[in-house]
Amino acid sequence: MHSKTWMKYFMLTIALMVGIITTGTDIAHASKEPHYVITTDTTYPPFELQDKNGKYVGIDIDILKEIAKREHFTYKLVPISFNSGAQAVLSGQFDAIMAGMAITPARKEVYDFGTPYYKTGVIAAISKNSNIKSLDDLRGKTVALKTGTGAAAYALSIQKQYGFKVTYFNDSNTMYNDVALGNTVATFEDEPVMKYAIQNGVKLKILTKPANSGYYGFGVKKGHNQALIKKFNAGFASIKEDGTYDKIVAKYIGAKESNFAGSAKVNNSIWGLLKQNKSQFLAGIGQTLMLTILGIILATIFGVAIGILAIIPNKFSHGFASTIIYIFRGLPLLVLAFFIYIGIPSLTGHKLSALFSGLITLMLNEGAYIAAFVAGGLKAVDNGQMEAARSLGLSYGKAMLKVVMPQGIKLMVPSFVNQFIITLKDTSILSAIGIIELTQTGTVIISRNSQGFRVWFLVALMYLIMITLLTFLAKWADKKFGGN
């Protein structure tokens, strides 16, 4: 009976999780106007970026905003890395993508595109101090590419001809800095994006003339959201006709970061960057702490339930718990996040929010580690304690709850707090699925001002302060509850 009691509690926990999954993940918009969820990459200026107030701006953003106003639809804009966003549209997570996506034959197989809205070409760029004179000089060397982009596809198409090796990055600014530092010798990028980066301080220079000229397109999953495509086409025709499109493009092409920083002069000192972007940093810290706290709470509930199942003298419960611990400790956190956020919706057809997917990822991964040390802590309690409690007439469940667990918890306290610290650091991985926590906040700020060293110094300092405070908490908790 005792194993059935614990199994009942565990199944109740699972039922609550399922209830959360099936409610509130795809609530219909209350407006009478059609509502869509559209993904973008906010680290791709001048097409998508954030200003100092966290407002999305850029050619793509302004075009979409103007079209939505004229065609009477509303939308929620979800920032995420380009490659992840493109996959999420195909999985049904998003209705469309507006992220400087080049229209290619391969993409036409899986996407329907609206009217092409910007003609571009791919250029190669090198460090300012580089001695490379032409693409022929790339032979045997490594170039940096951004995952899933048209520029990357063009580079791969000429790779054999010029004999270079490639490495990949998920965001443009990390890629640029890798070339500027000399880790890679060149990169391939769309011309207007590279010109904007150089205009705003990226220490690169353009090596080649534009090649493989093509167009950017507004994309939806093939055969889906045709009404949205029609609205985009109608709205785009309207803004082209009255000159609004030309004004939007002129506003951003060749622009400097000061245009979007809120003042004529930008202070790029560490203090100046902190002051200018304090609201974004605070929002990023808040999101990180929220993910950490909710993640550790859910992981603790899940982990304790699995940990108890692991020590119950029942072959089924023990085997089940061991399997859960093995699977979710073995899966890399990033793989698990992508599986939940992109893989599951592809299978079920139901959308999951990035926040919900991130919390479930933390719950399963961190919970598996908690389950392991919970089981270890409970097993460390002398067997005589359970035997003595049972001999006094207590049931297995009451003996576990009132005798064994209070002693085991004292042994687990340091591990719990250490897991809290690990969870805080692990939240940074969730930026890959579009959660704007502290790490992604740093990436977005750098996309606007190209101050990689200073911004990452500030982000690292903020993490260090939070982790130091949690370390002090760990020591206090160990002394207070650990019995030392």
UniProtKB/TrEMBL annotation:
Its main location: membrane. Keywords: Cell membrane, Lyase, Membrane, Transmembrane, Transmembrane helix, Transport. It is an enzyme of class 4 (lyase). It holds the Pfam family BPD_transp_1. Residues 285-474 form the ABC transmembrane type-1 domain. InterPro entries: AA_ABC_transptr_permease_3TM (IPR010065), ArtM/GltK/GlnP/TcyL/YhdX-like (IPR043429), Iontro_rcpt_C (IPR001320), MetI-like (IPR000515), MetI-like_sf (IPR035906), Solute-binding_3/MltF_N (IPR001638). It comes from the Bacteria. It is found in: Cell membrane. CDD domains: TM_PBP2. The chain crosses the membrane at residues 289-312, 324-344, 356-378, 455-474. Belongs to the binding-protein-dependent transport system permease family. It comes from Periweissella fabaria. This is Membrane-bound lytic murein transglycosylase F. SMART domains: PBPb, PBPe. Its EC number is 4.2.2.-. GO terms for molecular function: lyase activity. It is a multi-pass membrane protein.
